[in-house]
Every structure is written in C-alpha cells, then in structure tokens.
Write a structure and sequence with these properties.
The chain is mainly alpha-helical. The chain is built from 5 helices and 2 strands; from the N terminus they run H-E-H-H-H-E-H.
C-alpha cells in the first residue's frame, strides 16, 4: 500500500514538472520588432516562438549555403519548419527592406 502511494506521488510530481516546463517554454516573449532572417544572428532567431538553438543553427546554415532568403516562405525548406511553425512565427519575420532590394535591381 505504501509503495503505491509513493509511486502515485512520484508520478504526479513528474507530470507536474513536465507541464510546468511546457508552460515556461510556451511563455517565451515574442520579439519586440521584426527579425530579419537575412541578417539575424542565432541569438536573435531564438527569440522567435518555437525556435531553439538547433533550429536557429539550421536557418543560419541554410542561409550560408543558399544565400539570402527571397521570402519568408523559403524557411519551409529547412528541416523543422513546416506550415504550422511558419504560421506561428511569420508575423515576426522580414527579409529586409523590400524597397531597397527593388532599387538595387533597377
């Protein structure tokens, strides 16, 4: 009987610690302004909801190999970013000043 009570208490403590950790992770404050995915550092990228150090490193690696992002949707070429993740973060992203790029191509 005592073993069952201890096992139940441990299980409840474990579940509580998991849900608390998820709540803290979900409570990450959104970036104050837009994050330019063509110039952002790994640290700046990790301010985005759902983007941790590993995903930020993949974004930087992709940018280094493929050049600048033409659109935010191009992030879907990176493993770990699908439609759901992109919808969650796209409001915080930019690819830079579009008018400056348009002027550079004239």
């Amino acid at each position: 009987m005592m073993k069952r009570i201890v096992a139940t208490a441990l299980a409840m403590a474990f579940v509580l610690s998991l849900t608390t950790g998820l709540a803290v992770a979900a409570a990450k404050p959104a970036p104050a302004g837009k994050v330019n995915i063509n110039t952002a550092s790994a640290e700046q990228l990790t301010t985005l909801p759902g983007v941790g150090p590993k995903l930020a490193a993949r974004i930087l690696d992709y940018r280094q190999k493929s050049g600048t992002f033409k659109s935010v949707q191009e992030l879907m070429n990176i493993r770990g970013i699908g439609e759901k993740n992109l919808k969650k973060i796209e409001q915080y992203l930019s690819t830079g000043d579009a008018s400056a790029r348009a002027g550079a191509t004239k």
